[in-house]
Amino acid sequence: MNKKQILSLLASSLRAERARKNYTQEKLSELSSISMEYLSRIENEKVCPTILVVANIAMALDIPIDKLLPLDELKK
């Protein structure tokens, strides 16, 4: 799987989990201490966040990090 595919998987997982929690980008931004602009750029596949950023988002969503980056999907 290449970088573009990984970013796409992360973005779609993030949008789905955020929607499942009924969080706006603003709400998730506050909970994860990540700017709303940066969060939007992650969801739109414009940036490649560090693992620390992904971990902060997962903790804010109260989900394991592998829900945002499902390893089974990455292996395909």
Protein architecture, described:
This protein has 76 residues and is mainly α. It has six helices and no strands. The longest helix is centred in the N-terminal third of the chain and has 18 residues, at 3-20. The protein is globular, with a radius of gyration of 11 Å. The termini are close together. The mean pLDDT is 93.
Task: Give a quick summary of the entry.
With 76 residues, the chain is an all-alpha fold. 71% of the residues lie in helices and 0% in strands. It has helices at 3-20, 25-32, 36-43, 51-61, 65-68, 71-75.
Question: Which key terms come to mind for this protein?
Answer:
76 residues, 71% helix, single chain, mainly alpha
Contiguous runs where pLDDT drops below 50 for at least 5 residues? none
Category from helices, strands and their pairing: mainly alpha
State the total count of DSSP E strands.
Answer: 0
Q: What does the radius of gyration come to?
A: 11 Å
Q: How far apart are the first and last residues' alpha carbons, in Å?
A: 7 Å
Fraction of residues in helix? over 70%
- Percent strand: under 5%
Biggest sheet character:
none
Mean pLDDT: 93
N-to-C order of helices and strands = HHHHHH
Please, how many helices?
6
